[in-house]
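ARCHIVE CARD
SHELF: 3
SLOT: left
DATA:
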Amino acid sequence: MKSIVIAAALAILAPSASAQEVITSYAAWLSPNDMVNSRGVRLTDIAAILQQDRANYHRFGRRDEGDGTDGLFASRDMRSRIPDLYARGPGAPAYILDDIRSGRGHYVWVRVIGRGGRPDHIEVHEGAG
């Protein structure tokens, strides 16, 4: 019995290896500029728009007022992971998607969640811009 109590206490006190953390978060104005890719093709998928927003920010220097830095998506390789990371997350509320897809744009707060500094998924929330 004593060993069960000790094991339970250690489990409670020890940090969980599977605990998720916010790796980075940033604000972004998802504008009409982010809704067209480098080849001029209109984007309607939120994950592709998020990816283009980060390419515009890091690669092309086309930053909308209110765009924040993220410290994670500066490389093309990391930006290429955005669609998969978004797909693993909870998605964005429908009204945000409606605004973005309509071309009006929307201010969002993006959180990259992961473990041990490695991204697992992206959450998109209402921004306060």
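SLOT: right
DATA:
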Amino acid sequence: MIKVAKNLASRLMATPCLVCLAVPARRRGFCTSCEEELPWQPPGCQLCGVALGEAWSDPLCSRCSVRPPVFSSCHCTFAYEAPVSGMIRQFKDRAGFPEFRGLSNCFNEHFMQHYDDSASPWPELLLPVPQHPSRLRLRGFNQALLLARRLSQRSGIPVLDNSCQRRQGGSAQRGLNAEERMDNMQGTFRPSASATMMPGRRLAIIDDVVTTTATTQAMATALSDCAAARIDVWALARSNHQPES
């Protein structure tokens, strides 16, 4: 009877799965079934990370083969699809920190596993994408910075949270095609005083969602001007439905 009572108490106190809300969650915040069904980002373009169709034989997507990015690689843990897309919006717009912890657990393990298993050199600094000033005032936090700090706790890699300054103003990205987004972001970032720490260093830009890579490309351009040795991009999720170019 005592053992049954303890088992019942442990189930009542167990954290529910972030997706189904019914089954107790495992270590990463999801039950086994829901975790398996998450929209994990498949292998894709070797540069920008966008998913490629099964019939696509080239290692690069059509955009990167014509206009390669400044950064060396882009890695995303999830495709920006339900339920991950809703969880990210919940975190960003409603301060859904349980969702953030669950997704960042998966992100951290993806990051660590990649460098453990590959010949790629580990980054020496984590650089979160700066939040637009008006958005930062409205939201109260920079989700990329929180993601980088949690990854730093797991990896031991320091965070440089003021690597770039983001200019005020600028046209909105919504409604623009891929090339227009790239052009619109030119000159958005400029290195800050901490740029003296970057020459010859391997850097990892950290963001929550990558759509066309226009933002990370603009930031990588500013960082490459500081003679960084290598720049990788890491994000929670990747949109595989690109605006028409």
